[in-house]
What does this fold into?
Amino acid sequence: MENTAEKKKILFSGIQPTGRITLGNYLGAVRNWRLLEDTYDCLYSVVDLHAITVRQDPAALRKQCLSTLALLLASGLSPEKSILFFQSHVAEHAELAWVLNCYTMFGELSRMTQFKDKSAKHADNINAGLFAYPALMAADILLYKTEMVPVGQDQKQHLELARNIAERFNGIYGDTFVVPEPYIPKVGAKIASLAEPTKKMSKSDPNENSFVALLDKPDDIMRKFKRAVTDSEAVVRYAEGKDGINNLMTIYGSITGKSFEEIEREFDGRGYGDFKAAVGEVVVNEFAPIREKHDQLLNDKAYLESVYKQGAEKASYMARKTLAKVYKKLGYVAK
Ligand code: ATP
Ligand code: LTN
It folds into this structure.
């Protein structure tokens, strides 16, 4: 009998266990992952291989990996619907990354703005992994015949490179990889730093006041919003040059679902103090249940283990098939 059930498209995304997950990661990525679970066959990975492009303390990294997985679950991702796994548990990521390194040009990697930013920040450790990082990211995506990749704005350039690598390989060896599309949310794709609103909010920012983390205590969240850099106009409106207020309006709007006009009306004639407190409050309320669930899950190591083991098993099955196809195309003798 003909199978009429339509196959869902495959979606992949990753998050680095390099620090505390921020409001930027949540609004730009994780929250949308949950919304996409029903429409796509999703794989979400804690990309621990990527994390060591910057020095990590081993004990802290191990904790951070488990905490990141717990946060993904606490944010509502379901291991019944999606494949959740640690990147290092599926060896094919590193294997395909090596192959793709040989089809990625020095010039292309040199143009990556994340490499330029991170090598400026870590001038004492500009290692080859940091430089070749986008080839590993391309491997993550291409291993699973991924069609959609939900990311924040900052990852668009890496995704374009992944597409170029896939097309280049397909051009030489014939149809091998599916060429993926980015999925960048309309609102929340670029949450700015609270301390320097022209820069992106980043979990590795040494300034604690620049970001709000999912696991921050309510008082800390409120304090960080109260201190957020704004301007001297004292009118809540979205306009060029008002980066701080625009950012707070984006945050408020993407959590409450209100448009900029609605927010302007709501805070008409009220000062920034009121507005900042309101933004802090909606963030606190959004994060409170996630934080509570995270703490519960972290105490249930057996459950977490069952999730990441099953995830790696399912991911490995898919990844093995793609890698075998690639090796065959390259001309390697079959095992
Ligand atoms: P780091 O500071 O270590 O570079 P990061 O905060 O950029 O980390 P990643 O783990 O690299 O976080 O990114 C996870 C996801 O979050 C990616 O899809 C990325 O595009 C998204 N993201 C990161 N920062 C922001 C932000 N400020 N606004 C919106 N999305 C973001
Ligand atoms: N490079 C991304 C994390 C990442 C990723 C991926 C995202 C690694 N592999 C594959 C989407 C798909 C980052 O630094 N935010």
User: Anything to note?
Assistant: The chain has 13 helices and five strands. The longest strand covers residues 10-15. Residues 12-14, 16, 47, 50, 137, 140-141, 149, 151, 155, 158 surround L-tryptophanamide (ligand 2) (CB under 6 Å). Strands lie at 10-15, 41-46, 83-86, 148-150, 181-183.
